[in-house]
Amino acid sequence: MTATTMTLAGAINRGLRAAMERDPKVLLMGEDVGQLGGVFRVTDGLWKDFGPDRVMDTPLAESGIVGTAIGMAMRGYRPVVEIQFDGFIFPAYDQITTQLAKMHYRSRGLINLPVVIRVPFAGGIGAVEHHSESPEALFAHTAGLRLITPATPQDAFDGIQQAIASPDPVLFFEPKARYWDKGEVDDARVAAQLEGEHGAAGATAEMARARVAREGADVTLVAYGPTVRLALQSAEVAAAEGVSVEVVDLRSISPLDSATVVRSAKRTGRVVIVHEAPTSFGPGAELSARVTEQAFFHLHAPVLRVGGFHAPYPGSKLEHDYLPNLDRVLEAVDRVMTH
Amino acid sequence: MEAHGPLSDEGLVQMLTPAGERVEDERFSSFAAHLDADDLRAMWRDMVLVRAFDTEATSLQRQGQLGLWVPCLGQEAAQIGSGHALRPSDYVFPSYREHGVAFTRGVDLPEILRLFRGLQHGAWDPAAHGFHLYTLVIGAHSLHATGYAMAMDRDGLVATGDADRDGAVICYFGDGATSQGDVNESFTFASVNRAPIVFFVQNNQFAISEPTTCQSTVPIAQRGDGFGIPSVRVDGNDVIASYAVSQWALRRARAGEGPVLVEAFTYRMGAHTTSDDPTRYRTKADEQYWAERDPIARLEAHLVSLGELSDDFADGVRAEAKELGRRTRETVRSWGKPPLAEMFQHVYAEPHATVEAERAWFERYEASFADAEARA
User: Fold this and answer.
1) Could you tell me the CATH number of the domain that includes residue A255?
2) Which residue segment(s) compose the domain that A255 sits in?
3) Which of A13, A76, A178, B175 has the fewest CB neighbours in a 10 Å radius?
């Protein structure tokens, strides 16, 4: 095992490189992913090392990028597509939901589309409109797609490789505000998994698992991607106030590892879900329904959600009031603790 | 017929007049010069069979055996002509009206009706026929076709130096589709990547009820110009010209010379689908004008004038057509409801927890009725 400290963005870059070295059919496609290395530099250096045939600067057309990636995947390629920002995924929404998600079903299993769509998402970076959104529920709602989102460099490194190895289309949501967070990465784990007995199937199953990021007894606090760090901070503060918070990092939104959350909920009896996406019809709504169905008689309090509002993402001077923060998470923890 | 614009005969390549008289085209005749009487009879036969199947499918919908049917009536020459120019090394991306092309790719025609009876969304093995599944979202497949062509190029299947080995993609769509963003994006991607693809537009003059003038003020073929894609307008009711122009386009693409746009100007003689009512938006006179330009009658007149359509041959084909109709009816009527479990199959290539949980619940739910019946 070699553990290296790297940023979350750096871990994705290293993961992409490993996947490209492992399989010559892996291609990167997107706007500015080549010479520039992507606007967030996530593909930095790959164009130089793998050449423009494998790191393709595409025309500025999101539907075109995903649509042509589908055609290439039909011939056995594994395109990894970058959508430059969350809010720019919508021109490709039709290709993703009516074509990418449904081709395997339409062909009765004859066609696999192992396409990965990387999406820098969520807010907190002081950006202009359309650069801070969290549209994950729209894709999790569509059968045929998988959607994972890492919160740590380790999960970023492993997750991008698992996503590329998976025979299904995967949306890989990258919490852009966390790109520069550092952490230890063991680069042997995912390699062993992919080269192991269960290969891509094992990797696909593995990337769908939630992780208990901190153990606790009184409240289950569920987060993913950009809000995991906030959840851990909240748990820290709550602990100082005598409340023991268990933090679950979902890692995968589709499928949703509700079993891990339900197990935790049955012990704590209290669940708070925190995400940046609007709470209305958001991933937390689905999770809340599942917890209520499967752990109803263990609950001491209603399941609460902390998230974005049913309003367009505001101008950046207001974003820290729009986004869930420490105070709002702790307020929800207090509320479930009153029961 | 208009004098100019998208509904005119401006610049149409023609080799067979509506009366069935062979005429030369300076640029494209050479691409059809090798066609002999056997080849022409084969095209006539294919058109007759496809029309018989098409007519049978319309009847089956009227009898309640199909939920919907999408006739290709009137477009047989464009489809059979281009289909005959294809080789096994080529790959086809149809929209959903290309039953004629499907036939040239060896798809057993009645199988197409699985879609329209509501049994499944795709009914043939695309790889086995080099013929992708039908795509109902207008123009969405043009990008898949372009990506596929880009991948063929990468895979060294284009411009190999052996013209018999080279392959290309042909992508079919209609005049309405040319307004879609995806089609315009596919022109861009194909052009800048010099992809081996032929965009084959059947301008059948209607997008359901909307005339082509609703999509464009210039002939559709002119749209290639801005993308740097060479384009040709061909008489889509002329099977020989459709063949010749497709040969030219495919050879270029296979040789690595990049994409081509072919506009086959034709007429949708039937309705958009069996749910449509063309009497609301077009005249009898218009339909009559185009009935006189029927693609099958045109080739038939030509063959007869050459003395190359014997009664024996023609009767044989008509008997074959009748038999195809009978087999189509019987096949469709023999299909029952698919097993319920099919709903959950092939949603993902690897198991997905939500699908598995819902499948398990549904199986228990279904089994509960069996238990109740057993107890009763």
Assistant:
1) 3.40.50.920
2) 211-337
3) A76
Is the pLDDT reported for residue B376 higher than 90? no
Q: Are A151 and A274 contained in the same domain?
A: no
Q: State pLDDT tens for residues A267-276.
A: 999 999 999 9
- Pair A171, A217 in one domain: no
With a threshold of 0.90, tell me whether the complex ipTM lies above it: yes
Which two three-digit tokens encode residue B93? 């991306």
Q: A157 and A194: one domain?
A: yes
Q: Are residues A333 and A272 in the same domain?
A: yes
Q: Which of residues 10-49 of A touch B (CB under 8 A)?
A: none
Which of A108, A95, A193 lies closest to A145 in space, CA to CA?
A95
* Segment A157-192, tens digit of pLDDT: 999 999 999 999 999 999 999 999 999 999 999 999
Query: Would you say residue B1 has pLDDT above 90?
Result: no
Please check the confidence at residue B372 and state whether its pLDDT lies above 80.
Answer: no
Categorize the per-residue pLDDT at B144 as very low, low, confident or very high, splitting at 50, 70 and 90.
Answer: very high
**B43 closest CA partner among B317, B328, B306:** B317
Residue B360, φ and ψ in degrees, nearest 5: -65, -45
Structure-block tokens of residue B307: 């003395």
Asked if A202 has any chain B CB less than 8 Å from its own CB, the reply is: no
What is the DSSP pairing of strand A26-30 with strand A146-148?
unpaired
B273: alpha, beta or left? (left if phi > 0; alpha if psi -120 to 50): beta
Beta bridge partners of B171: B93, B199
Last residue of a domain, one of A206, A234, A268: A206
Chain A, chain B: beta-carbon pairs less than 8 Å apart: 139
Same domain, A23 and A166: yes
Residues near A191 by Cβ (< 8 Å), separated by ≥ 6? Answer: A18, A161
Q: How far apart are the first and last CA of chain B?
A: 71
pTM above 0.95, yes or no: yes
Q: How far is B354 from chain A (nearest CA, A)?
A: 6
Overall number of domains in chain A = 2
- The pair of structure tokens assigned to A69 is 């990636």
User: Which of A206, A229, A249 is the last residue before a domain boundary?
Assistant: A206
Based on the fold, state whether residues A188 and A241 are members of the same structural domain. Answer: no
Q: Which of A201, A170, A105 is nearest to B347 (CA)?
A: A105
Which among B122, B151, B348 has the least Cβ separation from residue A108?
B122
The residue among B78, B88, B42, B10 whose CA lies nearest residue B309 is: B42
Is the pLDDT assigned to residue A129 strictly greater than 70? yes
Cβ-based neighbour number of residue A258 at 10 Å: 23
Question: How far apart (Å, rounded) are the C-alpha atoms in residues A261 and A265?
Answer: 6
Asked if A154 and A29 sit in the same domain, the reply is yes
**Does A166 contact B350 at a Cβ distance shorter than 8 Å?**
yes
CATH, domain range B29-334? 3.40.50.970
For B353-367, what is the mean pLDDT? 96
Kindly write down the DSSP assignment for every residue of A192-211, as one continuous string.
Answer: HHHHSTTHHHHHHHHTT--E
Tell whether A192 and A229 lie within a shared domain: no
B220 to A122, B102, B182, B269: CA distances (angstroms): 42, 24, 16, 20
Q: Does B121 touch chain A (CB under 8 A)?
A: yes
Chain A hits for B346, CB-CB cut-off 8 Å, are 104-105, 107-109
User: Both tokens of residue A324?
Assistant: 């869930």
